[in-house]
TrEMBL record:
Pfam families: GntR. CDD domains: WHTH_GntR. PROSITE patterns: HTH_GNTR. The keyword Translocase does not apply. InterPro entries: Tscrpt_reg_HTH_GntR (IPR000524), WH-like_DNA-bd_sf (IPR036388), WH_DNA-bd_sf (IPR036390). PANTHER family: GNTR-FAMILY TRANSCRIPTIONAL REGULATOR, HTH-TYPE TRANSCRIPTIONAL REPRESSOR YTRA. It comes from Pedobacter psychrotolerans. This is DNA-binding transcriptional regulator YhcF (GntR family). Keywords: DNA-binding, Transcription, Transcription regulation. GO terms for molecular function: DNA binding; DNA-binding transcription factor activity. Residues 7-75 form the HTH gntR-type domain.
Length: 124
């Protein structure tokens, strides 16, 4: 995983975990990598992973079964969508709208680009 400078590493790791859940690589009630395993895999300090896991626990996306490990919460997909949607609408959408306005991009053009993106990336 390559980290960007514009966002805290623990938040980028949270996005990584959330994406795995949304893509169903990790399913509800399935065990996820331990703090140490994830730290080794992503080459970060275990404290960074713990901070990520703490955040995701507060959002009810993962849960800790003491002595066993961390697991994907039963309704994690819904929680991830709510968490990411809130962030997207508040932080990213205004920037996107500004660029659409400044570059005079039509909604028809956006729709075509979006449909092509889905076809190329998700075989829908």
């Amino acid at each position: 995983m390559e980290f960007r400078d514009n966002k805290a590493i623990y938040l980028q790791i949270a996005d990584y975990v959330c994406e795995h859940i949304l893509l169903e690589k990790w399913k509800a009630e399935e065990k996820i990598p331990s703090v140490r395993e994830m730290a080794v895999e992503l080459e970060v300090n275990p404290n960074t992973i713990m901070r990520t896991y703490d955040l995701l626990q507060t959002k009810n996306i993962i849960s800790n079964k003491r002595g066993i490990g961390f697991f994907v919460a039963e309704k994690a997909v819904d929680q991830v969508k709510d968490f990411r949607k809130t962030h997207f609408i508040a932080d990213e959408l205004p920037v996107l709208f500004r660029n659409i306005y400044l570059l005079n991009i039509s909604f028809d053009e956006l729709q075509r680009k979006y449909e092509n993106f889905i076809k190329e990336n998700f075989n829908a």
